Amino acid sequence: MEITRRRLLVLLPAAAAAWKYVLAGTPEASPNYQMTAHWWGMLIDIPKCIGCGSCVRACAAENDVPEGNYRTWIERYHVADWRIERPEVESPDGGKNGFPPNQDTGGKNFFVPKLCNQCADSPCTQVCPVGATFVTPDGAVLVDKTYCLGCRYCVQACPYGCRFINPKTNTAEKCSLCYHRITKGLTTACCEVCPTGARQLADLKNPKDPIHEFLRTHNVQVLKPHMATGAKVFYNGMDGSVR
Amino acid sequence: MPEANPRYRRALRFCGAYRRPIRRGTRNLFKDTEHLIRLVVVIAVALLLFAVLRTAVVPRSFGQYGHYRGAAIAETAARPIAFAGHDACETCHTDVVDQKKQGKHVVVACEACHGALAKHADDPNSMTPPKLDTAVVCARCHEANSAKPKEFPQVVTADHSGGIACDTCHQPHRPKIEEKTEDEKTQAKAETKAGGKK
């Protein structure tokens, strides 16, 4: 094609518009949010959990979680009096629709909500071959779904079983700690709807956050501490049988 | 012994190796320089190609914060919200807030029962939340289960209400009811059952 003056005059503004689009990049989501000022985690108060499944339903609604997969789920534990290392755990449909009444055969019965532990030294980000999953400067473990290959390394690496492959996109998916909400000053969807306050979003870098007082005055644990994942989901009142 | 280049000899002397006998073929050390130059050119072109390809293929924000695409953070944060949060509800529905304050349900967020309503909060006329079936919604939390904390109020709905809607007797925003006589209770139940049959 010969470049005449007329054609050039048409092409130049088009090229300028395209270049402007390239430069613009992604939109700024929350201009007042300082990533370095936060270090997010969560507190789960097991004695308060009633297993209503509100968190599971809210998570699915908020994050468009495909049916049959769960970014958060609830487990019901039944521990016989003397077999603490062999708890009976069930989670029908992730606890989305609550739990059927159980036969109380003695022992301990309780609910444990589970979600991504937002590990500071997360095994899942370490195994990603392309850098599609990462710990953000404010402590959330996210998946870059446009960069994920769907190789499933991270699904295997997570010691908590918190990841799955989205059947629609064929990429890894997990709890994002409602990153689109917490950066806007809201709490996560699961914490928002929890009727008993069993789940609480915690900002460990904020000295005024009640989490600090709570951690000082309660017997708080993380899941699988021997794996040294730097998990930031803290469980209060957790029984030794919980895995 | 072939004549060594005087300049080369000077260099050797400088290195303190002058006395070492110059071996055969040393004179021709740089005879095939063009081979080296070719090699260097090939490597340089390959490196240049790599650099050009790398800049073209790797996203610009990759490595901004770590070994990942920095722009992915903003993309994740840009997702629209589905739950408005109880603060948004309470700016308009102050009557419900006052009602809730009188009972235990003050700690329960609106969207825990009413569902995700960010659309309604953005534009109240665009959608209105559907009416809830209290027989289902209340039971989600209050149906008896041995795994629930003992101090949490629980009922076996089949025995407690027989499956009728909870808001027949309870006000969901302030669930505690003033003590009624047994007659009133049975009357209310009978009325609802009769109403349901119609």
Distance between the termini of chain A: 68 Å
Q: What is the N-to-C order of secondary-structure elements of chain B (H for helix, E for strand)?
A: HHHHHHHHHH
Cα shape of chain B: rod-shaped
Q: Report mean pLDDT of chain B, rounded to a whole number.
A: 84
Described by the principal axes of the CA atoms, the overall outline of chain A is elongated
Low-confidence spans of chain B: pLDDT under 50, at least 5 residues? none
Commentary on this structure:
The complex is a heterodimer of chains A (243) and B (198). Chain A has 243 residues and is an alpha+beta fold. Chain A has a domain at 37-117 and 175-236: Alpha-Beta Plaits (2-Layer Sandwich), CATH 3.30.70.20. In chain A, 23% of the residues lie in helices and 19% in strands. Chain A has seven helices and eleven strands. Chain A has helices at 5-24, 54-63, 123-127, 153-157, 179-182, 189-193, 211-217, and strands spanning 40-45, 72-79, 88-90, 108-115, 133-135, 141-143, 164-165, 172-173, 199-203, 220-221, 233-236. In chain A, a hairpin with a 6-residue loop joins β7 (164-165) and β8 (172-173). Chain A is elongated. By secondary structure, chain B is mainly alpha-helical. Chain B has three domains: 32-79, no CATH class; 82-129, no CATH class; 131-198, no CATH class. Chain B is 48% helix and 0% strand. In chain B, α4 packs across α5. The model of chain B has no long low-confidence stretch (mean pLDDT 84). Chains A and B meet through α2, β2, β4, β5 and α5 of A and α3 and α8 of B.
